[in-house]
Amino acid sequence: MTSANTAFEVFDPSTEEPFATVDDVGVAGASAAVEAASAAFPEWAATPPRTRSDVLRRAHEAMLARAEELAETIVRENGKPLAEARGEVTYAAEFFRWFSEEAVRLHGSVVDAPAGGGKQVVLNQPVGVSYLITPWNFPAAMLTRKIGPALAAGCTVVAKPASLTPLTAIAIVDLLREILSEAGVPAGVVNLVASRDSSGVTAAILGDDRVRKLSFTGSTEVGRVLLAQAAERVVNTSMELGGNAPFLVFADADLDAAVEGAMLAKLRHNGETCTAANRFFVEAPVAGEFARKLAAAMADLTVGPGLEPGTQVGPLVDDATREKVERLVQAGIDDGGRVLTGGRRPEAFRRGFYYEPTVVTEVSPDSALLAEEVFGPVASITTFEPGEDVVARANDVEHGLVAYLYSRDVGRAMATAERLEAGMVAVNKGVVSDPAAPFGGVKQSGLGREGGHEGLLAYTETKYIAVDWTA
Questions:
Q1: Is 142 a member of any domain?
Q2: Measured between alpha carbons, how far is 70 from 135 in angstroms, rounded to an integer?
Q3: Could you give the number of structural domains in the chain?
Q4: Radius of gyration, alpha carbons of the chain
Q5: Is the pLDDT of residue 13 over 60?
Q6: What's the helix, strand, coil split of the chain in %, to 5?
Q7: Predicted TM-score of the model (pTM)
Q8: Active site residue ranges
Q9: Domain enclosing residue 249, as ranges
Q10: How far apart (Å, rounded) are the C-alpha atoms in residues 459 and 51?
């Protein structure tokens, strides 16, 4: 993967040292990828759905067969613990299996025209060449969550992984290309663009008339820029953007279950996820007990390199991410917050982008620690009084991706879930993501949905055909 021309290094977050070099394809390579995807699109779109299904099913099997190799690659470039990386590979492969099943269920409809005199035919056709931009935090799962439905619908793709974590994407795309070749499909169905020139590459791709779909997972700030670029040619877009998830704990909740769920919702991939619970709102009668139990659980975690046995929290992905976490924790302290555990870099590591699992209580409602997405292992706890409208406080941010709540009162839980301004709500559980369910947010957390049947429809255009059926 070295190049005599332009290349870039990939760094291990646990050592801060480079361990691989990847070709940077640049704008010329991006244009070539679009050319290849465009040339392959007519034949792939006409490929029987069963064949597309078989390709994705085989990709699922191939990923699981190489699970350990893929998991270790994720850890090396991303930093998450090996156990979590193994879980990500299984989760990522499941998107290929789910959409292999959906590929043969892209149904349209034929109905009588209400006024009579003909039929109304509705088709779901592949949207076309699709540009897929994936983030560094889930380099396998975010790629398969986009490629799976795109291929199932009959689209060809140009995928651009984050330059911090390109190696996992390269491995998965190589695997897919081998399967596509064995199926007799022409080259160009799946293309990968690895580059540090994100703006130049993206401008070239979105400026090409042959590209009809943009799917992006990343920050809200970058998403706004991409939406403006896509608007120039009215490109079909799906946006999975930032989050700042609330986690509500009512006094009647099972506190042990709530703490267990909080650990899952907060600490997946070291807290570097858009679905991470950031703002914990706990009803006053149980706030102290919940905070103590959560702090004890966080303090008991083992921090270390992701490949080291027993590691439960690995390094953050880079120094900029850690510095943001440090800035926000300090803001919370300056605004009156009290650190129960963590709040600093671990003293045991001279190298690596580590930060201790942290619990901060008594955080001021207007603190930046609550207003901004943390993207690190930090839980911020505030209390609310019985009868207080905590939902209004939970909704008082620009994001609306996911929310969590714990209560034994099913009626209150469902009423609260309906009022929360979020695309997804987890009730009495700490994980919401599932390949079979629609994933996405409201407000400035994005547009559209990935996963579920909705994820397949995101790569289609609806065509209505009016037929004179009077003969």
A1: yes
A2: 17
A3: 2
A4: 23
A5: yes
A6: 40, 20, 35
A7: 0.95
A8: 240, 274
A9: 245-434
A10: 18
